[in-house]
User: What shape does this take?
Amino acid sequence: MQLSLRYLSSRSDEWKALVQKLDNLLCNTNERKVKVCCARETVPKKTVPGEQCDICTDYPRKCVFDFKLEMLKSDADGRRADGRLRSVLAYNGTIPGPPIVICEGDELVVNFKNKITGKMTNMDGSSSVTTLHFHGIREKTRPWSDGVPFVSQCPITPEGQSHPKNHNPFPFPYGFNTDVDGAPAGTYWYHSHVGAQRTNGAYGALIIKEKGTSIIKKNIIDDASNTLVLQEWYESSTNQVPVSLLVNGNGRIGELINTGDDEQITAHLKGKGACFNLTKNKYFDTNKCTTNYTEFYVKEPGYQYRFRVIGAISQNLPLQLSIENHTFTAIAMDSRNIEHVTDLTDLWLAAGERYDILVKTTKEQDKLGLAYKIRVLGFTDQPDNKCPLCTIAWLKYPKQRIDPIYVTDSNCTGFHLHSTPLRTLNPVPNKYTAWKNRIKYPHWKYPSTIGGIFIADLR
Assistant: This one.
């Protein structure tokens, strides 16, 4: 009953007053309830716009974001994806949606509206109803805010399309309290949990920053803007041929593009893998690029930079990340700290996985020439590592430049090259010999040990 009343409390002042009375009664008569149900009342929280919550304070806050999900075209900055025109779903008009960055001790409130108009048809036939899910957050005290349709809540209908008796003119109040809802500091993400909506752009980064003592020490640049959200991108919302990869919603396609038939698409969607047909890309023109690769900046060479990597992947298409002429250290996985794994050359991510890494930058102040490439690689025929898709982001030192017309080719030339031997974290477990010959704990603690490090051996 209490859970239902808390949900209804967002609907009227009368309900709020009633719920407050019940909370006070429970808090005054049961010590355990005080700790769980009333934690947010014990310390008043200052309400601030969510965009101001990326800098941590010594007082608790209620961070309020306003989100709307719309069906749009990839025809404007912030949602151009790989440069082709197609239908997309976007939170507040961008892909990915706005990053949510808050701190330990904060409460998150997302006032969410479903503004999907017309009919957004997805490959799986899902309709224009929607939900919002915070991936990795346990929602201990607000299960109705978990966003799983027909399990923890009914999906939200588009504005103006509700049944007259159930019409709701108010935003749906999503959120959680980092103190009591199972939300420790770390890297998360949010997305629609209806059908294939997140495949079409309905996703974004969610970061809870550490307060005070943390795993982050001096000489480390920890900026939440250094987040890479990785996704494979499809021909359209109804044609599930993977044609490109996106980093923070940005990518390009070269002279050739994947096309496929129903049999190939079905094999891909079943996770069996498929090689698609390469045909001429009618959108390709290096002199008229409408998209750019994402750029990250090394403003203080010599420091380690914390990067958060999110696998917003939809199907069985694991992605490999490496950084040209750089190694890195993994410090956290799926918002949980791990014993540091140093001197890595490669990292693989599957759908929903997140890693926090420290990238070692060099002290050479006068680096010239092209910025370094952050390479992202995947294989549509994943079991046999055939038929690659790839993209990049730029890692730019102060005096380096960006190549504005660079585009990866269909063979992903250069993506298999490394200046150091491979030391790979979380390799795809599709070869028994790789598992058998993996670097086990504690041997991976020695940087000179080369090979694959599986998550079963992390500590």
